Structure to design on (543 residues):
């Protein structure tokens, strides 16, 4: 009798969800079902602007309690129909434990699929957000424009961040220590393999992509044996292939454990596990760090046996088509601490960072070449961007990584985002941030900054959306009606410019602009420096 009552209540709840969705949906959506059956239960989405949206779909069990610092476990099945009209909780991030909408229970994804899909399964873009492995969420990455324009399915995901996603300590778990966030990404990819067909997608044509830490993640997944067969193409935007060794990761973990009040930490993780998330977050400031001291994937473990950068250079990655590139002024925004630098302070900082190579660097990047205001920031932005000094982001190392990858994979494509004045969404300033890190994302995924695009920039946005969509569909960004995009093997890269001016240029043009003949000859350990600390060492007054 009780079972019958529960079943009736579940059916009533499902009916109420469906009626509320139909009453809010436009007529075109109301005339068809927005309920999709997954392997764990049914979800009911919404439809807007010719795109069906399924938000906040669980792809793994909540990683709480005994699930904290463990590989992701399967999500529980549910009865009835689950509403999928709003995103799930974001993962805890940036040391914040009280912000609304954030929780340890955060392993959710979002699906954007064309409303007019018919019959044949559609290619899939699986997007991994950035944020330094410490911030960000899938719901901030709107896949609707790419889905609608290209008739593809887009999946965006959350994954564990900061100490919850990348802490490594002996005895923390039997598998995955230091890489829980990467394993979350793989769990979401496996969910996609099992379920995307129900949303109109083709599980055999999944392209993973990401920007910044999302790009780092893509490179790590290319190098991960446990991700093999889960995707058939890759997009890396302004992301390198960095990782920590096990020793580096454990040293960071022990320092964090002490900060969290577990100074007697041993192989027994009980001290940390017993703490509430708020206390763990409060102690995470140094673990999260900044540009050069934040969390990274850990290599030398089963899910990442070889450091991703080494894997690319030695051919030990998945051999799938790759679209890779960066912005023109990748590092300029991080060079802000040198805005007030004098000539002497700039030169001192270069000597601190580059040691024996400093005089050669200064000969090619003289202070006098970068204007009369914010000179040090523009100069460091240029030399850091060309040298790939920060985890291989942009510049000559980035191009070399692409060249190495292309030796195995003919469908490798390189770009540089060269819009000189993308919208920043920040108050007006006479400091020109240029095409800084992440400035291309509003051209691909709608946001408040997308609304600030000029007509010429909107034209560039339209072209980029089509290039990315073509790559997802065919493993080749070339598409009719806009500038041809040859492969890297053809000795070309794509310069993306507003107003229909995008064009393919010879890689020699890139190498000359970036002074790659010099940087490729420099004996330099490429360890990133903290801009604030370097500026302080050189005596630069705060900006």
């Amino acid at each position: 009798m009780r079972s019958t009552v529960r079943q009736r209540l579940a059916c009533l709840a499902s009916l109420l969800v469906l009626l509320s969705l139909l009453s809010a949906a436009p007529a075109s959506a109301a005339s068809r079902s927005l309920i999709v059956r997954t392997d764990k239960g049914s979800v009911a989405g919404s439809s807007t602007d010719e795109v069906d949206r399924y938000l906040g779909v669980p792809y793994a069990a909540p990683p709480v309690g005994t699930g904290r610092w463990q590989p992701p476990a399967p999500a529980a099945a549910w009865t009835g129909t689950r509403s999928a009209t709003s995103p799930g909780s974001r993962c805890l991030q940036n040391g914040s434990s009280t912000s609304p909408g954030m929780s340890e229970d955060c392993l959710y994804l979002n699906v954007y699929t064309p409303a007019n899909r018919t019959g044949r399964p559609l290619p899939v873009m699986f997007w991994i957000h950035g944020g330094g492995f410490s911030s960000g969420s899938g719901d901030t990455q709107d896949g609707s424009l790419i889905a609608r324009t290209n008739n593809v399915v887009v999946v965006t995901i959350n994954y564990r961040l900061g100490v919850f996603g990348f802490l490594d300590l002996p005895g923390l778990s039997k598998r995955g220590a230091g890489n829980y966030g990467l394993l979350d990404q793989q769990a979401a990819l496996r969910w996609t393999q099992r379920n995307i067909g129900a949303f109109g997608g083709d599980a055999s044509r999944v392209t993973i992509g990401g920007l910044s830490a999302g790009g780092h993640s893509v490179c790590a997944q290319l190098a991960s044996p446990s991700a093999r067969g889960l995707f058939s193409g890759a997009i890396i935007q302004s992301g390198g292939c960095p990782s920590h060794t096990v020793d580096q990761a454990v040293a960071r973990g022990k320092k964090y454990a002490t900060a969290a009040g577990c100074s007697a930490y041993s192989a027994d993780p009980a001290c940390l596990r017993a703490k509430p998330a708020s206390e763990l977050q409060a102690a995470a400031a140094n673990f999260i760090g900044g540009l050069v001291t934040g969390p990274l994937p850990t290599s030398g473990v089963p899910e990442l046996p070889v450091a991703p950068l080494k894997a690319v250079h030695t051919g030990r990655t998945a051999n799938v088509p790759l679209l890779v590139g960066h912005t023109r002024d990748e590092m300029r925004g991080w060079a802000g601490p040198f805005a007030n630098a004098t000539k002497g302070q700039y030169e001192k900082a270069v000597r601190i960072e580059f040691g024996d190579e400093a005089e050669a660097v200064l000969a090619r990047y003289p202070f006098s070449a970068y204007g009369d205001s914010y000179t040090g920031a523009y100069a460091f932005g240029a030399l850091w961007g060309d040298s790939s000094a920060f985890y291989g982001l942009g510049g000559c190392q980035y191009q070399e990584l692409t060249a190495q990858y292309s030796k195995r994979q003919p469908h490798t494509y390189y770009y540089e985002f060269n819009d000189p004045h993308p919208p920043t969404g920040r108050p007006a300033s006479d400091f020109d941030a240029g095409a800084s890190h992440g400035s291309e994302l509003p051209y691909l995924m709608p946001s408040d900054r997308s609304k600030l695009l000029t007509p010429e920039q909107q034209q560039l946005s339209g072209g980029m959306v089509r290039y990315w969509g073509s790559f997802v569909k065919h493993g080749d960004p070339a598409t009719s009606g806009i500038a041809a995009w040859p492969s890297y093997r053809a000795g070309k890269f794509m310069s993306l410019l507003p107003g229909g001016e995008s064009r393919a240029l010879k890689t020699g043009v890139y190498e000359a602009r970036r002074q790659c003949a010099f940087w490729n000859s420099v004996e330099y350990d490429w360890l990133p420096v903290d801009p604030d600390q370097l500026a302080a060492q050189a005596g630069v007054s705060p900006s």
The radius of gyration is 24 Å.
